[in-house]
Amino acid sequence: MASNPPAKCCTIGVKHEGETTGQSIKVANKHDAYLATPTADKAHKGAGILLIPDVIGIWKNSKLIADQFAANGYLTLLIDVFNGDALPLNRSGPFDFNAWLTKGSDGNNPHTKEAVDPIVEDAIKALKEEYGVENLGAVGYCFGAKYVVRHYKDGIKVGYAAHPSFVEEDELAAIQGPFSIAAAETDSIFPAEKRHRSEEILQKTGQPYQINLYSGVEHGFAVRGDPNKKATRYAKEQAFLQAVTWFDNYLL
């Protein structure tokens, strides 16, 4: 793998403050989603972003991130890839992460690529056909990174991921456009050896790539980091700016 599978660290973090400005919608009349729309004077016509979240799914922090992308001119669709079965923040007690991934909380709602891929495809289709997106970027946090990488073939032109998990080497090698990664110094899911291996793979793709390493932070910092910690706040803000400038350069 280019990054390890998700683990308990993927569910730990801090809920952020702020008022969300987007709207809850349905994609393909069945998938929950959140749409953040830029103001007319800032909108990048024909450009949009698909935001594929970590295992916490659609919640305050991920909505605020979608709103921030919209504030920078990008129509942003945050999609529920867990079929209503995202995990709560800071879950307590024993938990079988692998069982949740393979079967879901009720034993009949898996979160495997066979289940997630069609949801992502529906979201891409909606952005293109319903919202007029011609230049599609995609953002993946943790779990979501895998599905950014997997869906260049379906129309993603430019990708960005923060603290990726579950990405296979052959998936990363198959990307068909620019890809940027924000990595944490302390991350058992995307440790130094996986980061270096990813760099080797990206070099061979011939595509523009970027890997930024942020010191003093852990896995999840770009979504769930504690903004009261100076180093974490700085890294989170810089990782977001990394994404925006990447899209501004390669998507527009």
From TrEMBL:
Residues 32-250 form the Dienelactone hydrolase domain. Pfam families: DLH. SUPFAM superfamilies: alpha/beta-Hydrolases (SSF53474). It comes from the Eukaryota. InterPro entries: AB_hydrolase_fold, Dienelactn_hydro. This is Dienelactone hydrolase domain-containing protein. It comes from Podospora bellae-mahoneyi.
